[in-house]
Design goal:
By secondary structure, this protein is an all-alpha fold. Among the domains are: about 5-490 and about 505-530, Orthogonal Bundle (Hydantoin permease); about 565-710, no CATH class. It has 40 helices and 6 strands. It comes from Penicillium olsonii.
Length: about 1050
């Protein structure tokens, strides 16, 4: 693939930068950790709001945008090209549009930080050293085209109202009504909300097309009859290049899928599904366009009008326009929304205001939409040759968005390996043809459109348009009778005196006046404005596909990042401490990857990802000889460099080519890295990529992926590791799952080389196996069928999954015991939601005090374990402890004072809570991330325990002091909430404000609180305002 985008870092910020840097109320940039609680809450809500679009709704939005009234203009192109030429053009351009959409989507997948087409253009133009210029150029192109498309829909709506009502109302009134409707429909900023309207739009256009086809067929059965319809399989006689070219470009413009594709993809919750939407839309368009064009042309013949509904008779044209009103306005509003999102996102690029969930956000959003609609209204009403100007802009801009920009993206952003490989030669020829086709449309289309605008000015001394052309807003060509009136069968005349105050009385309605005075059909080109330019948009996301990789791709490795000391230390730590719970590699297999890392990009990416995984997940710091490039780097900066290097290397390899198993492992390791950082969206992205690759049966289809010395047990372990990780993540974050356990799933057999680790992993599998789609549907509230018996059986199964007398190393037992008790808490929470708990239940697990027993079991298990054994499992284990502790606090709040204390020699709930707080305090990452939240939970729910806990943890309040955070003077409003370590750190130094510099706090710096879902919706919430005080915890 082409070289990385490091040299243009000033032009393009990574998505991680966007999510870790926000803008405060005063406009000053703040790190996410320095945002107050309200800002974090707004940010989290915004992320959820704009991350809900699935591929099915995306398909509906695309159909609403693409398959508009332009469908009814396709039959006229068949009349020009003939039946054979029309069918071939529709199908051929349709598949080209699908392919170019795949290219644009692939660019988005490999560069998740881009949010719209201008960002992708900046990435492309940066290869020529002018990234900023490309960004601004495409921004102007896209903005102008979207505004003009909105104007075309406003004008089409006006014409539709005039056609339907045939009233004497001034057409300006209908234009204003159309603009108001566009404004109201464009208010929702989320495409997920727009998708709801898309169902109406889709049904509307299908009914309109069906009525048109049936109506023209009925008309054709009349004189002279179907047998005498003058349709032809070949182009019409004496066809000119200009006529054929215009007919072809009308079809090409109707297939414009890529224009807003990246904008849609940025809102998908599962980007890997984007090709499902592309294929669905592509086939819908091909079928609808081809059938509509062929059938209507066969029924009407060479006399077919554009739009085709005018060939169905006066009544049916009114009926179809009425049915198609949702199509006109919903499709137009989508153009307005995309333009508004682009402008709004640019204004508040790094601010939480960009999510449009604050008063400032809504005010600016409504202002942008209102101004855009007003400008579109003015353009549609004022410019006399608007349709030709729109044709010019479409030739100038759509040719790039659909054809030559995607082709250039393949050559400069997606091509992998030398151009001389057979695959690259074939793709180069294909993309070269697409590029030349785009240039042809650009040059010839622009020339034709300019000539259409200029010719009337030079060929004719006409000083003012005739009445019909002036009212239809088309140019008046040549002396009277003008070409427009001749082609439409109208009488061409010019009024002696033009009205000065708008159209009034009987002349208010164009169609009424023209029909009554001339007894002719309404002109055709006027209503064609929305047709060839109904630009589709595509937001699909990700099908892993990319050309073949080789080391000669232009990926630039960071010099000195991976030293032999680092690799050896991380691999030794991984295989000695982590392999039992992450059984995805063997030592000898990994050693081969190390040897190949200098020559193979797959191997280099895997080695880098594993080092990043070890350092990020556990905070394991190694001593090695750093190069001059990294000698002054902190551990946090070095960890970020490792993740960035692995991510960048992964962009240059094809995940579905050999070796696929390595691609799955790399995706899983990057998932673990982002879990360690708290970047939940990034983590979920890589987890879904790993499970999707496995679900696609890539391993089965490519036996060459298996190496000669592969462990026969590794494939089964990889599957079950993905199952465990996906289900644990689904419970914590309320996500869907991909992998299903069936009779065909790989079996876990006894591993003679590692019987102890295999036994522990088998128990871990047994823990998570019952949490299938049925449980998750109940957990997420989508399935209300839940019984006490099923939950009791599930509790018993989890309780028995790990034998009491199981003898395993502490590292394995730590994960097993903590996961077991955490899952028991999750089941109890579901029982709470279902209303199954009571004070005197038939089953002990249905007692509302059951978490006390779970906490006791957890404490007894962890007291036996070493701290080092729990540190190995990273932040995921701490989060489980935290969730158990929060549930324990809620139950303790319902107990009497006597019930909280220990009795005799038996420990009580207070002791369990102190122990859990100690674990969270002592484990790396817990003190900074979860301890502040837990203490606030205790203070709000169980205030009597605050003093015993702070004394037990050796914490104490310290006096109020101003502290500089990101250059701003901040004063804590609550003195009692500020806590510092006694003895662990010096007195109130900069380490109090920037704890990332303190020893042991290896993961404090870039944690994204806005993306952290504490324990989902099933546990009581913590006051988010507390988050503004977290900077005072060391």
């Amino acid at each position: 693939m082409a070289s990385s985008f490091n040299e243009t870092s000033t032009d393009t910020k990574t998505k991680r930068d966007y999510e870790s840097t926000m803008v405060g109320v005063d406009g000053e940039k703040l790190a996410v950790e320095e945002m107050n609680g309200r800002e974090r809450q707004i940010e989290e809500h915004g992320i959820q709001k704009f991350n809900r679009l699935g591929w099915k709704r995306l398909t509906i939005v695309l159909v609403a945008e693409a398959v508009a009234l332009g469908t009814l203009s396709i039959p006229s192109t068949f009349a020009t090209l003939g039946m054979v030429g029309g069918v071939i053009t529709c199908i051929g351009i349709g598949f080209i549009a699908i392919y170019t959409s795949y290219i644009v989507g692939r660019v988005k997948v490999l560069n998740p930080h881009i949010t719209n087409f201008p960002d992708a253009a900046q990435l492309l133009f940066s290869k020529f050293g002018c990234g900023r210029f490309g960004y601004e150029l495409v921004t102007v192109m896209l903005g102008l085209l979207l505004v003009f498309l909105g104007a075309s829909h406003c004008l089409t709506g006006t014409i539709a109202f005039e056609t339907i009502t045939e009233s004497n109302t001034c057409s300006i009134v209908f234009a204003v009504v159309s603009a108001i409707i566009l404004f109201l429909l464009a208010i929702p900023p989320s495409f997920t909300e727009v998708a709801i309207l898309g169902y109406v739009d889709f049904a509307s256009i299908l009914i309109a097309v069906a009525i048109t086809i049936i109506g023209t067929g009925v008309e054709a059965t009349k004189s002279p009859g179907l047998s005498n319809v003058n349709w032809s399989a070949w182009p019409k006689e004496n066809i000119t290049f200009s006529e054929a070219f215009i007919a072809g470009t009308n079809i090409a413009f109707a297939y414009t899928i890529t224009l807003c594709q990246i904008s849609f993809m940025d809102e998908m919750h599962t980007p890997s599904d984007y090709m499902k939407s592309i294929w669905s839309l592509g086939f819908i368009e091909i079928i609808v366009y081809t059938l509509t064009g062929a059938l209507v042309y066969a029924f009407v013949g060479q006399d077919v009008k554009s739009p085709a509904l005018l060939s169905a008779g006066h009544f049916l044209s009114r009926l179809v326009f009425g049915i198609a009103l949702p199509v006109i306005f919903i499709s137009g509003s989508i153009n307005i929304v995309v333009f508004g999102r682009m402008v709004h996102g640019r204004i508040f690029k790094n601010s939480y205001i960009r999510f449009i969930n604050t008063p400032v956000g809504w005010i600016t959003w409504l202002s942008i939409i209102l101004v855009t609609v007003i400008v579109a209204f003015i353009i549609a009403e004022v410019i006399p040759f608007f349709s030709d100007l729109l044709s010019l802009m479409s030739a100038l801009f759509i040719s790039g968005f659909t054809f030559y920009f995607p082709a250039m993206m393949w050559f400069f952003l997606l091509r992998e390996g030398p151009i001389t490989t057979p695959r690259n030669i074939a793709l180069a020829i294909l993309n070269g043809i697409i590029f030349l086709l785009g240039l042809l449309i650009l040059v010839a289309g622009t020339y034709t459109s300019v000539q259409d605008i200029v010719n009337p000015m030079s060929d004719s001394p006409v000083k003012k348009a005739c009445d019909a052309c002036r009212r239809r807003k088309v140019k008046c060509i040549s002396p009277h009778p003008c070409k427009q009136c001749q082609s439409a069968g109208l009488v061409c005349r010019t009024s002696i005196q033009r009205q000065r105050k708008g159209r009034q009385g009987q002349t208010a309605n164009i169609l009424t006046e023209l029909r009554s005075k001339e007894n002719e059909q309404v002109p055709t080109r006027e209503t064609n404005i929305s047709s060839p330019f109904a630009v589709p948009r595509l937001e699909s996301l990700t099908t892993p596909q990319s050309p073949q990789v080789s080391e000669r791709c232009q990926f630039s490795r960071a010099p000195g990042l991976l030293s032999h000391g680092l690799i050896d230390a991380c691999s030794e730590y991984f295989f000695s401490r982590m392999r039992g719970t992450v059984p995805i590699l063997q030592p000898n297999e990994f050693r081969k990857h190390i040897d190949l890392a200098g020559k193979c990009l797959h191997a280099y990416c895997l080695v880098t990802a594993l080092c990043a995984f070890v350092v990020t997940q556990t905070g394991f710091a190694v001593d090695y000889d750093a190069s001059d490039h990294f000698v002054n780097f902190s551990l946090e900066e070095f960890r970020a460099s490792l993740i960035a290097e692995a991510t960048e290397a992964r962009k240059h390899i094809d995940p579905v080519t050999d070796p696929v198993r390595q691609s799955i492992i790399i995706a899983f390791l990057l998932y673990g890295c982002h879990i360690g950082l708290g970047n939940q969206r990034h983590a979920y992205y890589f987890l879904r990529e790993a499970t999707t690759l496995y679900t696609a049966s890539a391993l089965d289809d490519q036996p060459s992926s298996r190496q000669a010395d592969d462990d026969p047990f590794e494939e089964g372990k990889l599957f079950w590791l993905l199952v465990i990780s996906e289900r644990a993540h689904a419970i914590r974050r309320h996500r869907p799952i991909t992998l299903q356990v069936t009779t065909e799933s790989p079996r876990l057999e006894d591993d003679p080389d590692s019987p102890t680790s295999n036994a522990g992993f088998l128990c871990l599998v047994d823990l998570y196996r019952p949490f299938d789609e049925t449980f998750l549907a109940q957990w997420n509230g989508t399935n209300a069928t839940c019984s006490i018996e099923s939950l009791v059986q599930l509790q018993e199964r989890i309780q028995n999954a790990v034998p009491v007398d199981l003898d395993l190393p502490d590292i394995l037992m730590a994960d097993l015991r903590v996961s077991q008790q955490w899952l028991r808490i999750m089941i109890w929470q579901l029982s709470t939601t279902a209303g199954f708990l009571s004070t005197s239940p038939a089953h002990a697990c249905m007692d509302f005090r059951h978490p006390l027993q779970i906490a006791e079991d957890l404490c007894l298990a962890t007291w036996k374990l070493s701290k080092q054994s729990m540190e190995t499992h990273g932040i995921g284990l701490i989060e489980k402890l935290f969730e158990v502790a929060c549930t324990l606090v809620d139950v303790m709040a319902c107990l009497s004072v006597a019930g909280l204390r220990s009795s005799g020699f038996k420990l009580g709930p207070q002791d369990y809570l102190k122990h859990l707080c100690t674990l969270i305090h002592d484990l790396p990452g817990g003190r900074r991330r979860y301890l502040p939240l837990l203490l606030t939970k205790i203070r709000q729910t169980l205030p009597s325990m605050m003093e015993p806990i702070t004394i037990h943890l050796n914490l104490q309040p310290y006096p109020v002091a101003t502290s500089s955070i990101a250059g701003r003077e901040t004063l804590s409003p609550v003195v009692s909430d500020r806590i510092s370590l006694r003895g662990s750190l010096p007195e109130s130094t900069s380490a109090d404000i920037h704890p990332g510099s303190a020893p042991g706090n290896w993961i404090n710096g870039n944690f994204n609180y806005a993306e952290m879902s504490r324990i989902g919706d099933k546990t009581p919430e913590i006051d988010e305002a507390f988050l503004q005080y977290t900077s005072y915890f060391p």
